[in-house]
Amino acid sequence: MAVEEKKSNKGYYHSVRLAADRCIGCIHCVRVCPTEALRVHYGKARINPLRCVDCGECIRVCPTNAKYAQTDPWEALERFKYKVAIPSSALVGQFKSSVPPDKVYSALLGLGFDEVYEGALGGEIISLAVRDYLNKNGPRVKPTISSLCPAVVRLIQVRFPSLVSHIIPIEAPMDAAARVVKISRSRHLGLAPEEIGAFFITPCPAKVTAIKQPVATRDYFVDGAFGISDVYNRIMNNVDKIKVVPGIARASGLGIGWGAAGGENRLLGQGRRLAVDGIDNVVRVLELIEGDEYHHGYEYLEMRACTGGCVGGPLATQEPFVAKHHIDQLRRERGETFGIEEGRPPDLPYAEIVEMVESRVFHLKAPVEPRPTMGLGTDLAETITRMKELEGLIVSLPGIDCGSCGAPTCRAFAEDVVLGKAHLTDCTFKLRDRILKLAEEMSSLSGQLPPTLKTRESGETHGTEEDS
Q1: Strand, helix or coil at 418?
Q2: Residue 139: is the preceding peptide bond cis (ω within 30°)?
Q3: What is the model's pTM?
Q4: 398: Cβ contacts below 8 Å, ≥ 6 apart
Q5: pLDDT tens digits for 316-339?
Q6: Rounded to an integer, what is the distance from CA 70 to the centroid of its chain?
Q7: Rg over CA atoms, the chain
Q8: Tens digit of pLDDT for each residue in 41-57?
Q9: Residues 342 and 413 in one domain
């Protein structure tokens, strides 16, 4: 089971990988990284594993596909006696109305899965858990931030550590779906949970990382992940051969709506809630909250790193606005009656799910902690010394954040220099100044040559002793 891999991980696991042989040393990725985890040195990009949050923004902009997401191989299914696909609700948004959810999920059965349990059903479950938490506890701090998007959670851990207490301590829908399906199918099939493989069909690399190395939990129920783009291509290659299983799609329109921005808040119901999507927008709002400048009175923030929500993930295939339109159509068609309320065998009865919610089964088992990144020093004295050096260096830099040094900003470059990871002359402006200074010195020195080194071209004569 994938649990072994998760428990043995030391340091930080990352699903975003770099194929150095395809990297051409451009700085597209450096510019878009929200945590300044990327640098370009010696013509190749480098990823700082302490800062990377696996948002996948670098994957979007890389012109040579040198960044990619490491998902599980399809052979991973063979490790389990019973295989369950848990598709993100964003998956059905990738298809036109001619390929409805029943057809999409039926196609998954043809790809080697024994069953499909929608991630949207997990969204319905988690909405109950979030409602229960907010009703019983009220917002501990304002605003409370959704924990659904693992890229946002890790962004807060790395860049906004003072805000980790704002993250609601509730697990993500894919975890709830895997938990419920393993409990119910274990009872029904007489299999141990370890013999049941739950695989998430993901729109983003951050969820792969969340599976391989969960945050603030000791319960591992999702065993692996496949990218939506890979699954989409496999389905479309055989779309005319799919045998549709009627009624295989059971989630409500509200559950499916989790795949697009605003879907979570819609399912939670009334209240002062706000949806923020797109990594730049998320960063801007978090900066306001951290600076105590956020006074709009919202109690709950649904935050998604991808524009449009999960439908805009780096591993999705459709344009986010088109996929969101498809999701909205399905949401209206499928109504608002929860699919989990059906409770048809072998599902868990709805009453049991409610009891699990009230028993805090879906709560995180530990608080979300800040994630340390490399500091300027190993002790206070060294940090203060380097900080002074840093501030002095920043003043001397041009401050235009051109990126030609391989760092995203002049401040980031200054940090690299102070830490010994870069040379001052990596800055083209500093290099130019150095060259100009050397040229001036050479020009000055050329006029001060001793007589023995001067030439006729300088206007001097070189007579012999006989001539004199």
Answers
A1: helix
A2: no
A3: 0.89
A4: 410, 427, 429
A5: 999 999 999 999 999 999 888 898
A6: 13
A7: 28
A8: 989 999 999 999 999 99
A9: no
